[in-house]
Amino acid sequence: DNMKISQHITPYLLIAISSFLLSVDNVTAFSGTSRQSRSPYVLSSGQFGAARTNERHVLHMSNTMTDAEDRLRQRDSSKLSALSISTHQSESLQSGGSLQNPDFSSLAAVLSCSLLITENTVGAGALVLPSLTAETGLLTASSIFSALYVLNLISGFLIAEVSINQYETSGSQAPSSFKDLADESLKNKDIGNIVSLISLLTNISIQTFALVRGGSIMSSALLGGAVDPALMSTSFALMLGVVCTVCSSTALSYVASGAVMVLFTSFAGLLLPGIANVQDPVATIFASGTSDSLFSAVSHAAPILYSSMIYQNIVPSVAKILSYDRSKTKSALVLGSLFPTLLYLGWCFASNGGGVTGAASGATLTAFSFATIWGSAMAGVMSIGEEFQSLFSDKSATASSGDEPLSLPSVVAAVLIPLAIGLSLSHGDGDSSGALSLAGGYGSPMLYGLLPVLMAFRQRREDGLAEPMVPGGDAVLGLLATATGGFIAQHFLADISGMFH
């Protein structure tokens, strides 16, 4: 949940961005104070945040935003001071339209949160995107990416709206946990328990993909695939379980930070030269899909693409970091979700156009794949383990310090259950994309499509709040609910049809 990797990168980003902005006469700035963003691959003292990664990420439910945030703010403040960035509020625009004394610290906070969203999005799902987009064709895949970007953005705005309205109404900070946010918004503990169950099942589905794919990567790296992928998946799960059992959350945060560093360094090493080495860009873009049935290809790809673009689980945290400021939160969501969409499109373009094979060595691709899976799988163990530990622990026992390793039974359950499911689904061939399809076809749409509509609708009606972040009133809420319901129904029908073929 804490972004330790961004602590090292952000100061250098700020130097470059500040130098550029100072040379521009008219700059759109944001008011507020800068807060340090936090990494989805790095553990807080209470819980390791999941990523989605894709799976990226695992859909985490961080239950605390503790004094670690205060330490991050202090560090961020000292970095901004070293750059001589003013922290006072920006003055209003004059009639001529020029902006006096732009607040670069607020702009830095928005950029930092945008990177937080990006890092929370890019993950294990990226490994299967090129093959999926090859089936549909890149042009069709681009349309799917664009539609999912808009739908997720509306969903993110609704979650931010609920969080900000709760803060403004109560005068205290809104919950950072998505489950707690649903509890307070809907005022129904039963729905909160359902949210927890759906989240747990979704996490297990994504963890299933990560464990099986991790074994497949290890099998390919060792003796060219001569080793049984099922054996390597078991070894990968065992190694992961030992690390998560022995290491404290602080120690795991350093391991996770290293994985994030390798992930983005290797991704840049693949993507940039890969795009440049595409032989025929036009033909790559307009190439037909490899699947005989476009409808079947889209039905197969859409849930996995959707799962790979989820970031809404951290929207309450982003709103809190940005002091519940509407304009800054909206800007962070727009930019933060746009970056991974463009990265995914570039990655698929480079891969399907032959650029990655010609531009990258096998070692770089292996490093990217393993770092992606390791970060996602470790996040999954911690997220699922926390859920099991909270379910079966003695509530009357004295609370731990928050930096102790998870209990052995919790880690064993978080590893063995997804591993058993993955090995049974993959049939030993290393293909577990069906688990991602399950998460993206049912769990994620329910959590981040239907639930935000219910929360926003209830809040607007019963609390009488009249400052929505999403214009269009009930029509937009109905549109998102209908699109999400149709998405789930289409995936269900495709699954039923597939059972008879």
Radius of gyration: 22 Å
* Mean pLDDT across residues: 75
Give the SSE order as H and E letters.
HEHHHHHHHHHHHHHHHHH
Q: How many distinct helices?
A: 18
How is the main sheet built?
A: none
Sequence stretches where pLDDT stays below 50 over 5 or more residues: 1-100, 395-401
Kindly estimate the percentage of residues that lie in beta strands according to DSSP: under 5%
* Secondary structure category: mainly alpha
As a percent range, the share of helical residues equals 55-70%
Number of DSSP E strands:
1
Overall geometric form: globular
Report the end-to-end length measured between terminal Cα atoms: 43 Å
Description:
The protein has 501 residues and is mostly helical. The protein is built from 18 helices and one strand. It has helices at residues 4-22, 67-82, 104-121, 129-136, 138-170, 178-186, 189-221, 229-246, 249-276, 281-286, 294-308, 315-321, 326-352, 355-359, 362-392, 408-426, 433-462, 474-499, and one strand at residues 54-57. The two termini are 43 Å apart. The model is unreliable at 1-100 and 395-401 (pLDDT under 50).
List key phrases describing it.
501 residues; mainly alpha; 1% strand; globular; disordered N terminus
